[in-house]
Amino acid sequence: MKHDESTSTTDRPRVVILGGGFGGLTAARALKRAPVVVTLIDQNNHHVFQPLLYQVATSALESTDVAFAFRSLLRRQKNTEVLMGEAESIDPNGRVVHLSNGHAVPYDYLIVATGAQSFYFGHPEYKTHAPSLKTVRDALDIRYRVLMAFEQAEQETDPVEQRALLTFVVVGGGPTGVELAGAIAELADHALKRDFRHIDPTRAKVMLLERGPHILPMYPANLQAKAEKQLAGLGVEVRTSIGVNSVDEFGVVIGSDRIMARTVLWGAGTVGAAVACSLGTPVDRHGRIEVASTLNPPGLSNVFVIGDAAALVQDGEPVPGIATAAIQGGHYAAHAIVKRLQGKPVEPFHYWNKGQLATIGTSRAVAMLPARVHLWGFPAWLMYLTVHLVYLSGFRTRVRVFLSWIWSFLTWARGARLIPSQVEGRAFEAADEEEAPPPLGVDEHHPAPPSH
Amino acid sequence: MKHDESTSTTDRPRVVILGGGFGGLTAARALKRAPVVVTLIDQNNHHVFQPLLYQVATSALESTDVAFAFRSLLRRQKNTEVLMGEAESIDPNGRVVHLSNGHAVPYDYLIVATGAQSFYFGHPEYKTHAPSLKTVRDALDIRYRVLMAFEQAEQETDPVEQRALLTFVVVGGGPTGVELAGAIAELADHALKRDFRHIDPTRAKVMLLERGPHILPMYPANLQAKAEKQLAGLGVEVRTSIGVNSVDEFGVVIGSDRIMARTVLWGAGTVGAAVACSLGTPVDRHGRIEVASTLNPPGLSNVFVIGDAAALVQDGEPVPGIATAAIQGGHYAAHAIVKRLQGKPVEPFHYWNKGQLATIGTSRAVAMLPARVHLWGFPAWLMYLTVHLVYLSGFRTRVRVFLSWIWSFLTWARGARLIPSQVEGRAFEAADEEEAPPPLGVDEHHPAPPSH
Fold first, then answer.
1. Confidence band of A390 (pLDDT split at 50, 70, 90)
2. Which carries the bigger pLDDT value, residue A414 or residue B203?
3. pLDDT per position as a tens digit, A111-151
4. Taking a C-beta distance cutoff of 8 angstroms, is the pair A308, A270 a contact?
5. Does residue B277 register a pLDDT over 60?
6. Can you tell me the ipTM of this complex?
């Protein structure tokens, strides 16, 4: 019986999925009962719930709250294997993916879900000084920089340098930039408020720079205005129509002005992953693969490109690079492969706009819903919480994240305050706990005189 | 009012505490209401709950469950400041501590709580191949190695190399070695059981090597036998009276035998931290400072050495290097400083033996309690859980750890399965979630044929 199964398995068409983000993971799961063999290839051993990554960067959540081991997610899916490795190039003629470890993985169908990476407008050297937020590693790196800036400011005696340490610049006013700026302002104003003896964290300055005339460019004008007002309420200095000339270790240069800031974060641009370009089909100016309405690049009917890796125009408008679009693309690609195997016709992909949300600190958000419904403030924030809890993987994580949020909301404490272990070491997290436990804490027999 | 306070504060005696482990943190807290200014210096920004570190190393807990930011723990203690930095040397004549960043911190009283570090018996080069478990970084490094060994074995085609990847050697049969070996065996047998397609994780081999005739040398013979039996029940191969001749990238050499193992962990020896030796007073052969019954090194009545940093003999027996001894030392040092300031006599330190516990996988342990009470198996394990939950810092962490344990006990899932982000990157954690979330998961409209 077992032998029969494995024999029939090797005869099945091979579906290779590159990338386990929202699109790739959805496609893998949607192929659970399909008569194919699925191989999911990812550089990491985990799926990342990207919309909440900024909360890991700002100590509100832990990495385990937003990262989930693929093997564990796909354990019960017997037709699927997970391959941890880096895809280096695709050979669409030979129908094979080459990995950086020298292995070659053949496919009958390929789903390219390699996402987008940060783009520094031709200045990759900025990355050292201004990390972006794409992976859990990025999030822990940002957390490290932000918390270390306060630690160093506490020990700094030069007031100019201390001010630079307490200045945080976020470049790019898209949702990631808005969420990061808001969360850093709240971290300084509340979570760290009473933790230092020589600096006042509430005097930290958070600036959000946007090249265009308004932050959240894809949102309608009324929500842009609401978001700017809500950010101002958190003490974030929003500056629009501002082009950054350069970024270095001292901060950013705008025209002839220099903003002295030891922490600069980049939320400004993205570009498709390089491996997708090795398909050799046309890409747009953001490095995304141009696809037809069937999500195939020209001439490659057995290759599907989904999510942020694809440049797709529908009804004259580009499909946005957001999680819901990637999820829908993943479902579609899986569906199309099964139809194809059955010899049935495949309808074109249709993106169903479910709206977009951006949160601004704890208890505020803006929401752009279908049918021109706009929400902001507390109702939008409640909607944000609900949607993200529903979409989060797994019951246990939902409970944990929900409890973390409740806890933060009630106490302002941040559950995951980073730690630089050693210079060459790996960053990790340390919890924020206010309560003194009895056994280690108060010594009842201790005859301490009253302090005065 | 505020001015008066700060003026009186600067006139107070300065107590500097080196190291924020159990001893140092207890001392800082016990000085909360004392008329002194306290400076706690630690390389990290967090206290580590070391007894549970092996659970971070084996994916059962997250780093935030066992690491707590000092600033947060000591937030309400106005007479205390936290200084993140590395103490390089102590000048007992000048009464000053020199930090590696060039700063000098003067003191009136010094509490040396620098703990112990791993000792490789004169072979520091072993450390690369056989990490030990002292810090959160160590724990994440071990977790990385263990989980990556399974990932690599899954892709390995050479059966000899695959076997080496699935062989885990723990050197040293003390509590840490016993706990690590048991937890790795359980990880392989349960948590990872169904996660791979080309290897069977339950066939992984875990070996525990002990130089002496029995594991847990400080325990009585009946509990040693129980522990060996419980480990055997988990499939751990315990080998005693075994001296390791060398450790390299291929495994360990014992006499003329070589054990091929890609993962070797070190739990064999400890030595006092180097900075403590700069006091210039006598040390024992483990590099621990010899102290009188007042915990002062000879001739230095304003210096207290506590916890693992101290070599103390009481009633003819060495005080063990365990958390309870360090906690009691911290209380004593704080108490003694206050008495001294009041001009009162100080009684000698007396270590109160509360017993020792070691756990062997989930649901088994051995406990050596006062009055020769011995426990083992499930009752000892329940005691272990209770004691550690009570001692853990903070209500929130207790709830989280308790839930993690319940969850693991019921499902065998491991909540914190590591991730190597990128080669040069920092390690972090990813959650282990079995449940498929509805929105990303099943596609009801997906016409997949039944798999067979």
1. confident
2. B203
3. 999 999 998 988 989 999 999 999 888 898 898 899 999 99
4. yes
5. yes
6. 0.79
Task: Go through B429-446 and write b for each residue having 16 or more CB atoms within 10 A of its CB, e for each that does not.
Answer: bbbbbbbbbeebeebeeb
pLDDT score of B16 more than 70 = yes
Respond yes or no: is residue A347 known to be catalytic. Answer: no
- pLDDT at res. A450: 36
Per-residue buried b or exposed e for A1-28, using 16+ beta carbons within 10 Å of the residue's own CB: eeeeeeeeeeebbbbbbbbbbbbbbbbb
A418 neighbors A430 (Cβ within 8 angstroms): yes
How close B168 comes to chain A (CA, Å)? 21
> How many residues appear in chain B?
452
Q: Which residues are within 8 A (CB) of B257 and not within 5 positions of it... i.e. 6 or more apart?
A: none
**What is residue B208's three-state secondary structure?**
strand
Interval B287-300: pLDDT, tens: 999 999 999 999 99
Residues 6 or more apart whose Cβ sits within 8 Å of residue B98 = B87, B88, B89, B90, B91, B104
Pairwise CB contact (< 8 Å): A78 & B147: no
For residue B67, give the nearest of A29, A43, A419 by CB distance: A419
- Whether the CB-CB separation of B209 and B171 falls below 8 Å is answered with yes
**Residue in A68, A75, A85 nearest the CB of B194:** A75
CA dihedral A224, A227, A233, A238 (to 10 degrees): -60
Q: What DSSP element (H or E) covers A238?
A: strand A236-239
| Residues of chain A with C-beta less than 8 angstroms from the C-beta of B69 | 195, 417, 419, 430-433
Written as one string, the DSSP assignment of A37-48 is EEEEEESSSEEE
Give the residue ranges of DSSP H helices in B42-155: 53-57, 63-66, 70-73, 126-129, 136-155
The pLDDT confidence band at residue A194, using thresholds 50, 70 and 90, is: confident
Residue B338 with chain A: CB contacts under 8 Å: 446-449
pLDDT at residue A419 greater than cutoff 80: no
Residue with tokens 């900025």: A126
Contact by Cβ (8 Å): B336, B346: yes
Q: Does B9 touch chain A (CB under 8 A)?
A: no
Task: Report strand pairing: B428-430 vs B417-419.
Answer: antiparallel
Q: What is the pLDDT confidence band of residue B35, given thresholds at 50, 70 and 90?
A: very high
Distance of CA A226 to the CA centre of its chain: 24
- pLDDT reported for residue B387: 86
pLDDT tens per residue, range A62-82:
888 888 889 988 999 999 999
Is the model's pLDDT at B322 over the cut of 70? yes
Report helix, strand or coil for B120: coil
* pTM for this entry: 0.84
pLDDT digits (tens, 9 = 90+) for B151-202: 999 999 999 999 999 999 999 999 999 999 999 999 999 888 889 999 999 9
How many angstroms separate the CA atoms of B265 and B31, rounded? Answer: 38
Exposed/middle/buried for A62, CB within 10 Å: 0-12, 13-18, 19+?
A: buried
- With vertex at residue A192, the alpha carbon angle to CA A128 and CA B18, rounded to the nearest 5 degrees, is 85
User: Is residue B277 a contact partner of residue B287, using CB atoms and an 8 Å limit?
Assistant: yes
CB B327 within 8 A of CB B23: yes
List of domains in chain A: 8-43+85-119+270-341 (3.50.50.60), 127-268 (3.50.50.60)
Cα gap A336→A348, rounded to integer Å: 9
Residue B200 identity (one-letter amino acid): D
The Cα B393–Cα B73 span in angstroms is: 9
Structure tokens at B142: 């071990």
Residue B187: what residue type? L
Q: Is A117 on the interface with B (CB under 8 A)?
A: no
Nearest chain A alpha carbon to B445: A335
